[in-house]
Write a structure and sequence with these properties.
about 30% helix; 3 helices; Alpha-Beta Plaits
């Protein structure tokens, strides 16, 4: 199915993508099926995602634009992508 990759995005990501409201760079939190291998890290980079911090099967990163967001989400080892959002004050 053509839009299967969108299901990997959180609700905020799907909404902002549909509204054309994504701003560059797109800061993300990505969950993968297992800890990244060196080859998978390279695939992320080639898809347009710059991994910043990696802990186990979770990583933070930046994606340059919506087209790269789609390429990143289409990677078979990527399970979930959440857009970064401001922390709430207590």
């Amino acid at each position: 199915m053509a839009d299967e990759w969108r299901k990997k995005l959180d609700a905020q990501g799907r909404y902002q993508l549909a509204e054309g409201a994504l701003r560059d760079p797109i800061e993300v939190l990505i969950r993968t099926e297992a800890p990244l291998t060196a080859n998978q890290r390279q695939e992320l980079i080639e898809a347009g995602c710059a991994p910043l911090t990696v802990v186990g099967n979770v990583l933070t990163g930046t994606i340059t634009d919506p087209a790269h967001l789609e390429r990143t989400a289409r990677l078979p080892f990527v399970r979930r992508i959440e857009l970064s959002r401001p922390m709430q004050q207590e």
